[in-house]
């Protein structure tokens, strides 16, 4: 794979100077046009062999372009805060807004490559990461991002020569460390791992560009020209959507569906309601404070439902059982300007809780396949591909220890009308009813179909939907709380059989096995014990 990057490309000083003069002017013009249009971000990944000129090339880009609209994102080993969240969390937070160019020095590829070389993860886990990255980059491309990935290559002898050269120069000697020479010993392993990764992630929407790093002028000029060419093509309107859209999972030939099949007549009388509510709140309080939950898991609760279906009341009864320092409620409304400049899932990744914490989403990422679909705020292709992207998102969270519980609260059209009128008559409820609520009623059937499609396509084993019969508020509130408790107990008891079934308590006389007491940051599936770090 790397033979073409070991041919000895050289650019003489005169040619380089002439080329760079034109290149700088063209890059600045393209950058200003990008800022003026502001309709897509640019992500440049710089990876490769130590000593191949990654830092020097980034410096050249800053010299040639306007640094006010260029930013470098660097990543080393995850911090404690990052380790207690899903792997991709820190990369989502670093994505550029539209109109900006971000250069990633170290990226989502770096740590898996290093851990594969050191033997911390096996091939199967490494390939899972590769599939995850391909889906992530496809999502970025379909959201409009321009993704450029550069791999700087040196032969083994070329790397050794470069390290010696850097070590002799007092201005660069600090860059060559003991670890640099240690990593030279694993050169063969890096080439094997990197060639597999580049082959598997060289996609039409985010191709790799392998650049020979022997000659500084050739390397920098190549990168600058490739960036310019890609920018000019995109600014000229050349863009393809690469992510296929799956057909519907089910086909209807009658009126029976997941919503019409609900029994909305279910009720709980007040005495029984108060007893079951108190019992469920006690269970939840104990589960949320359990060492098993705090050490390895977090909880994300997603609330969707018809307007006036009682989401707020259910959330209030739920948080009454929790320590206020442990949870966060995220009310989701129309995206802000900052959020519209990012992929639509970005604003939800920001609020993913760390271990032992709970985030409650009042409206969620499903707005893309509900309100945005029905109201025409996004294209059909966008909301159709969103099902797969949402499933990927939830799978990533679940695989890294986030327990996801999703609720749809359903009421009849007649009950909604009664509650709307009641809200108009009660002073402290009047703020809840808006003109938008009345407009949404006119699209009842369209929302009904959107909800059925959503449940069919996104109710998975890791993140199933729970449909709540919310005609009776007492029944809905109890079912929500008991569902959360059951889900927490199911996960924690599967990992620690010492959990007392049905109570949320633990049997202190029998501690959890050592492997179950390992914090998430050192116990990811497919990983082995810590070893030496690599930093491609």
Q: Share of helix among residues?
A: 40-55%
Mean of residue pLDDT values: 88
What would you call the quaternary organization? single chain
Proportion of residues in β-strands: 5-15%
Number of beta strands: 10
Main sheet summary: 5 strands, parallel
Q: State the CATH topology of the largest domain.
A: Rossmann fold
Q: Which strand order spans the largest sheet, edge to edge or round the barrel?
A: 2-3-1-4-5
Residue windows where pLDDT falls under 50 for at least 5 positions = 503-525, 529-535
The secondary-structure class comes to alpha/beta
What gross morphology would you assign? elongated
Ends: how far apart? 17 Å
Number of domains: 2
Account of the protein in words:
The chain folds into two domains: 3-235, P-loop containing nucleotide triphosphate hydrolases (Rossmann fold), CATH 3.40.50; 270-516, Rossmann fold. The chain is built from 21 helices and ten strands. It has helices spanning 13-37, 54-64, 80-83, 89-93, 110-118, 123-142, 156-168, 178-184, 187-200, 216-235, 270-288, 291-296, 311-319, 337-340, 346-349, 371-375, 380-399, 413-425, 435-441, 444-458, 473-495; strands at residues 42-48, 70-74, 101-105, 146-153, 208-212, 298-305, 327-331, 358-362, 402-410, 465-469. It starts with 12 loop residues before the first helix and ends in a 41-residue tail after the last helix. Residues 503-525 and 529-535 have low confidence and may be disordered. The chain is an alpha/beta fold. The protein is elongated. Helix 2 crosses helix 10 and helix 13 packs across helix 21 (473-495).
